[in-house]
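Preliminary data (for renewal application), 1-O-phosphono-alpha-D-glucopyranose complex.
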Amino acid sequence: MTNEKRVTKAVIPVAGLGTRFLPATKAMPKEMLPVVDKPAIQYVVEEAVKSGLHNMLMITGRNKRSLEDHFDRVPFIEQTLEKKGDTEKLAAVRQPTELGDIHYLRQGDPKGLGHAVLRAKQHVDNEPFAVLLGDDLIDENEDLLTQMIDVQQRTGGSVVGLIEVDPSQISSYGCADIETVDGESYVKVKQMVEKPSVEEAPSNLAMIGRYVLHPRVFDVLEKTGPGRGGEIQLTDALQTLAAADGEGAGVYGVVFRGRRYDTGDKLSYLQAVMTIASERKDIGPELRTWLKEFTAGLDD
Ligand code: G1P
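Predicted structure:
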């Protein structure tokens, strides 16, 4: 155990335009798309809270006000439900407002994920912190983020969440080249490349949208120029930290083999909704029966 400060804050970048879901996201943030009956962002906030992070900062942009409304009280609906005695729905409406202390800061210029994270510098101050990206949903029975926080506290560096992907998929992700650490379940990350081609990729380990970062990343991000796609890439800043020495240097990885859902594009979003819905106690049994009938009638 190092003398690391505790991790208490989560940064959640939500300024992305969500162009993959147009026209649904023309007047509504992609983070508000429902995954069964909760917006995707609520799963992410619940995951942060479950890992003990009650202080959250969302890096937002234009057109994202409904996110703030979602996590705020709504007296009119609450009073109506109270009068009706509908305690179940009342609890569902109140639950997102009781998830901790959520702060909001606009990103301003859309200069990429690294830039969005740098905007959190003043709020986070000199403490290690988590970053959660809204396109990745981690099953509520998994404890990836808690494990990553533990690795950060033990190593004093930064930690990324990794999954093995089919090599053909690697160009959608940051890719990490790793080495094992004797006697540990986490790995050391030697090199990271943002969205490499299949030929360039040093491995088939993809970085997913979970990070626990040492605050030194802010100093690095301030000096990081535009990378892939002309954007300031978090992956590039982490690469600098992986190669650095001294306090806050070093990047480690937790290879996640549990259940994760991707809501980042139309097909994977629909798969996420169907998987989560089919496991729900209320609608799951009927949905599964219907799905079997439906798929049996599908042509190849
Ligand atoms: C970002 C990161 C990328 C990471 C991915 C995970 O990319 O830049 O390294 O693999 O999130 O979801 P984006 O999907 O925002 O383009």
